[in-house]
Known about the structure:
Layout: E1 3-11, H1 16-25, E2 31-38, E3 42-49, H2 52-61, E4 65-77, H3 82-92, E5 97-102, E6 108-109, E7 116-124, H4 127-136, E8 141-142, H5 144-148
Antiparallel strand pairs: 1-3, 1-4, 2-3, 4-7, 4-8, 5-7, 6-7
Amino acid sequence: MNVKQISVVMSNEPGSVLRMARTLSENDIYIRALTVADSSTFSTVRIIVNNVLWASSVLKEAGFTVSLSDVIAAGVPDTADGLAHVLEVLDGAGINIDYMYEIRGNRRHVTGGGAELQIFVFKVSDNTRTVEAFESAGIKIFGQGELSGV
């Protein structure tokens, strides 16, 4: 189960990320997750939003360079070894992590197990094998619709 992530490439200068955020907010688009990677001349902002197609459209219309990619959102137990366990599953399956980040304000109570989860976004070398490995290990995978309400 993949989630669509929007990557926005922009100049690395004051106000660039603000302009992107304003463009989204003016169009009633909610940012659910965000990470910024920079170089000396440009930044790549990666976001998960509540309405991917609309967000892509309005960002392109506003002059931003936009691309979509498939990522995986997975529940990581909010325990001292929760992240290590999930990373061990990936390592055991021979899957490389290109990058990862946490979705803000996302702790959820899971009924039955009683564990709080953090939702992490993973960009990996093989989405299909990652989903299989996570499912085999009982790791919760979140779909696009589930993230809209986070």
